Amino acid sequence: MTLTLAQQDAIDHSTGNLQLVACAGSGKTEVVARHVAALLDPGQLTALSPANIVAFTFTEKASVELKDRIIRRCRERHGDRVNVARLYVGTIHAFCLDLLRAEVPAYGEFGVLNAVQQALLVDRHGAGSGLTTTTDLEGKRLQRFKDTRRYLSALDVLREARVHPQSLTTCSVVQGLGHYRQLLASTSSLDYASILEEAVRALRHDLEVRARVAERVRRLIVDEYQDVSPVQEELIALLHELGATLCVVGDDDQTLYQWRGADVRNILTFARRYPNVRQVRLEENFRSSRGIVEVARDFISRNAERLPKAMATTDAQPFEPGDIEALAFLDHDAEATFIARKIKELRGITYREGERDRALSYSDVAILLRSVKATGGVITQALDLAGIPYVVTGMNNLFEAREARAARALFYFVAGHNDVDEFALKASWEAARLGLDTAKLDVAVENAAETRRTLDEPDPARWELLAISRVFARFLEDLALREDAVPENRGEASFYNLGKFREVISDFETVHGDRPPLEQYEEFAGFLEHGAEGAYPEGWKEHDNASPDVVRVTTIHQAKGMQWPVVFVPALLQNRFPSPKMGGAGVWHLIPRAAVEDQARYEGSIEDERRLFYVALTRAEKFLYLTWAPIPGKNSRYVKPSEFWEQVLESKWVKRRDVSLDHRPRRDVASG
After folding, report:
1. Which domain holds residue 584?
2. pTM of the entire structure?
3. pLDDT-based confidence at 538, cuts 50/70/90?
4. pLDDT tier at 330 (50, 70, 90 boundaries)?
5. What CATH number did the domain enclosing 278 receive?
6. Number of structural domains, the chain?
7. pLDDT tens, 56-66?
8. Cα separation, 357 vs 644, whole angstroms
9. Quick one: angle between helices 28-39 and 60-78, nearest 10?
10. Is there a single domain that holds both residue 275 and residue 205?
């Protein structure tokens, strides 16, 4: 790989603080990996040991990729002279959890709740969690299930934002937070906010912890710095105060999570807030074609408050007229039908990847939506009709998948819920079209019926045999499911969705796994019917690294850090994208707006929506399709195109009509 001057400058930086302003596709992971390898060079007087370096990534997947890249670059540069086993690469939450378990004995055996498990815990302990004893700003008491999510969001704001205590003196949710903290302690649990909160407390007040961390951490690398929240920035500042130099990596144009508490001002003001900062701009895009780079760069330039930079093309992909299209359709069905047809046409088109040519496959295609819940249904129906395999990333719309509905029916049956009998259970699994053997399905249903008859087992020692996860695994074993037996080329997608259902079970058992079987199954059936679909926030990333050969239907938030040769961005409608501010009961009916510094960022802005659209544009490597169609309704809210769609039309790189792909060279998909 030939490095640019800016990349080499960043790699060689060894003293003081470093800010890498990394445009989309600029190879930041490679630069950071080589930078770490340089810091570990045994031949340098300033060399650090691996234990002296801590690198924060935004996701677990990114940490795996970065750690692997560091290992390879260290091996290339140092051979076997450097062992990176003690170098920390992971999320900021995982680092803080390790810190608490190692340095604060009280947290040694605490478990960690994700957002869904949090909600399940709060709903199980309505009064004990503070939920049902809390009132909103008008004095109305909160209710289980109905108000759980906004209650938990309010607790996160109180713990992670910069708040003004004098504005909270009459705020009931503050007392609720006290109850919630007691519940976490009594159940030996931490949530993500409390992990950060307690780690900051230890680093600020425990002199022995401060001394040990100061001795260990000499270089702190923070990826995706633009999405750091105030409490995370407080932790970073504490580590710097203890002697660590900083390397922050990010792009203010790709700030996505202000609505969740991230503060873009952190990256905009970094060089003013920290001493001796060297700022390096990584502007070359090594991912996309010239057309995509220029369309995206011109679009994001409409945001006024930005760090100075200009994404530049390296012609990473050849551009041909028709690679970028912005199209309008008469109705939503026509738009979805076009997407399905175009995917069929693109499959098999020759695509340049590195030094070789190969055929485009289904897994090279992503459909990115502002909201899958709001606009994904018509598109997935069109994919079904066209026989195109796909997965919807995250948990939203999970129960639109036939196999997920069949799995839900299993637990309705076992719990005696919704009048699902053996006949209905069999019919549900047959409707899933998984290529099942009828005799094996009969056996699986009979064994499920036996489980149903034994749910009132009185001996707690035998309850483990009736665990929901175990019963589900046994049912699938009885079915003898085979991926290659699933018709319509849906094997990978079906197994992917069943894996997501397992995650639903795992979340539920984390909170309710200690209950008697009959009570547990009844609660789980109720959760599947009333709570599961709404429990997972849109943008939820399931713990899955599988890469099936299927089209991805996902939110733009979930697509951050990813890229595809082909990207569709449909439903570009006024009042959908950019999204208007949401009404109804929310966090700010529990917390006064004046109590939170820079509160407006939580409610979003046109600049935030523009950043989100920029991220969507820059996920594409070669083909990019931007579409819209009116959705008629009595209030005519969704009958005009998004202003973003109209602004993109100004570019000379964008075609306003569909261009045939017949002249493009093709290859056999199976041979690549």
Report:
1. 324-394+546-648
2. 0.91
3. low
4. very high
5. 3.40.50.300
6. 4
7. 999 999 999 99
8. 33
9. 50
10. yes
